[in-house]
Protein: glycine oxidase
Organism: Nocardia colli
Amino acid sequence: MRTLAVVGGGVIGLGVAWRAAEAGWSVTLFDPAVGSGASWVAGGMLAPLSEGWPGEDRVLAFGAAALARWPEFAARVETATGQSVFVADATLTVALDAADAADLRTVAEWVGGRGHELQILDRAGVRALEPNLARTVRAGLHAPAEPAIDNRRLVAALRKAATAAGVQIRAESVDALDTLTHDQIILSAGAASARLWPDLPVRPIKGEILRLRHRPGVTPAPRRVVRARVHGRAMYLVPRADGIVVGATQYEAGFDTAVTVAGVRDLIADAEAVFPGIGEYELAEASAGSRPGTPDNLPLLGRLSDRVVAATGNGRNGMLTLPLTVDAVLAQLAGTPLPEAEPADPQRFTTAHQPSPSSSAGGVR
C-alpha cells in the first residue's frame, strides 16, 4: 500500500489525511497538538464574494470555486461523522458611512458582473434582515450564497473521520521532511511551513478573536454573518449555537500569539458600533493564532518536488478553501492536477529550482 505522511494537523492536514485514507493510502499525520493552531482560532466565514474587489480576479475565482465545493464536502463530513458544521446560511456586509456604502456598490457591481448573486440593501432592507443592528447602519450587501461554519465542530469532525478511515495520528513534531520515509509527503504546517521548506513564501499573520456567550434576556445574536469596516478596521460577527465569534485583528507579528489589551479593546468597540447589544454578552474567550499568509493572498498548493506536495498558505481563508485544497491535493497524488487550483501553484513565485528540504529546520507545531 502507498504510504503518505501529512505534516500538520489543522483542518487542511486533517481533511487531506481523511480523504487520502479513503482513497487507499496508508496515512500518518504528524502534529504535536492537532487542531490547536489557526484552525482553532477562526470565525468560519465562507465569504469570497463579499470580500471581492476589482482587480483581484484570481483570488475571487479561487474562492468561488472553493465555495462551490462546500455543500458536497459538508454533506460528506456529516455522513461520516453525524456532525453538521453550518451555523449561518448568508453573509451581510454593512456600511456605517457614505464611503463604505460606495465600496459596497463597487463590490456588488464587480462581483455581480462575474456571475455571482449579491444584493445592495438600503437602511430599511438591512433592518428587515437583522433588526438588532445599530441604527447608524446606512446600507448593506447581502450575499445569500455565503454561509459560515463552526470551525471547532469541523476540527472535531475531521479528526473523527480521519481516525475512522484508518489515519494514524502521531503527536510528534517533524524537524526535517527528509527524515520521513513515506512515498509521498503533504506539507500542511500552516505558518510554520517555511521552517520545513526554506524560502517557501509563507509567513505568520497574527489574528485575535473573541468568543462571546449569550446570556438570558440579552439581545439575540444576528442570524447571518455580519461584516463591517469600523475606523478602517475590518470586523465580523459570526453566530454560534451559544453566542457569537467576534473577529479579527490582523498584525504582522511573527509567531506571537499573545492576546493584547489593544486587540480586545478594538474588537469590542468595533463590534458594539455595529451590534450595540453585544455589551451584555459574556466574554467567554479571547484567543490568537498565526494565519499562514502569502504575498498574493492565494494558497501554496501543488508540487514542491517529486515527493512533496504543498498544501499551505491559505491565510485567513483556510476554512473557505478547505474543500478545494483537499480535492487539489488528492488530484496531485493521482497525477491529474485540478485546473481550478492552477492559480495556487507554489512555483508561481520562482522560475528557479526550489531548495531541498533542510535537515536542520526547526520543528513545527
Notes: The CA atoms of residues 32 and 148 lie 28 Å apart. Residues 1-89+147-201+295-348 form a domain with the FAD/NAD(P)-binding domain fold (CATH 3.50.50.60). The first helix runs from residue 11 to 22.
